[in-house]
Design a protein that fits this description.
eight-stranded antiparallel barrel, two-stranded antiparallel sheet, globular, 2 helices, 6% helix, 211 residues, mainly beta
């Protein structure tokens, strides 16, 4: 599968993309979220469950590889060309061990800004889902969290092959242990770009803030 080529150059951001959709992968994952209901009661007592609060609290490390390149189109909300559905799929560990799928919308190079002297590209939105699994819960499946990404930045660093990434995740709902979940989570990490075309990697920490 082809990978997203993101090239950051000092004084100018250049991003090349090819067309590929991530949305079917997300839909497939969401379609299977409620298949393991017997684990619900056992899951509630584990870290990250929302019993007695409106949103999960905890931290997860993220290591995700790129699975789709997205499609370049005009974004009428931001009035800029945007690459939609740039997809990443990978593992999480910590309070929410599982499989994270993220589909990002990334603004084109025409929308590049400067943050502390470094070029920055906007992430105007996206969607995500996180099924959580634990080894000592019957059937393993605890429940799933899902929602939208309301904004973020990809910021150039001194390393031309690595950029800083920050995003805000909004929780729109969940299943089993996370049924009725709301709240937000903050992602901080890096996007590593392999100029040889071997794929991009998203790494960092996802902190769930509760309410």
């Amino acid at each position: 599968m082809e990978s997203l080529a993101l090239t950051f150059k000092r004084g100018k951001n250049q991003m090349t993309t090819t067309k590929y959709f991530c949305l079917p992968v997300i839909c497939l994952l969401l379609g299977g979220l409620t298949l393991r209901a017997p684990a619900q009661q056992e899951a509630l007592s584990y870290p990250g469950g929302i019993q007695g609060q409106s949103g999960p609290v905890g931290m997860a490390t993220v290591n995700a590889g790129q699975i789709s390149n997205g499609q370049l189109a005009f974004n009428y909300q931001t009035q800029t060309d945007t690459t939609f559905d740039v997809g990443f799929l990978g593992q999480t560990a910590g309070d929410f061990p599982g499989t994270l799928t993220v589909s990002l919308n990334i603004a084109s190079t025409d929308a590049v800004r400067t943050i502390k002297g470094m070029s920055a590209t906007t992430i105007p939105g996206g969607i995500w889902t996180l099924p959580v699994y634990r080894v000592n819960v019957r059937d393993g499946f605890v429940g799933s969290l899902y929602g939208t990404i309301t904004g973020g930045e990809i910021v150039q660093t001194n390393n031309p092959d690595k950029s800083g990434v920050s995003m805000t995740f909004v929780i729109q709902g969940g299943t089993l242990a996370y049924q009725g979940a709301t709240g937000t989570a903050s992602f901080t990490g890096t996007l590593s770009v392999d100029e040889r075309g071997n794929g991009s990697e998203l790494e960092g920490t996802l902190v769930f803030n509760g309410r």
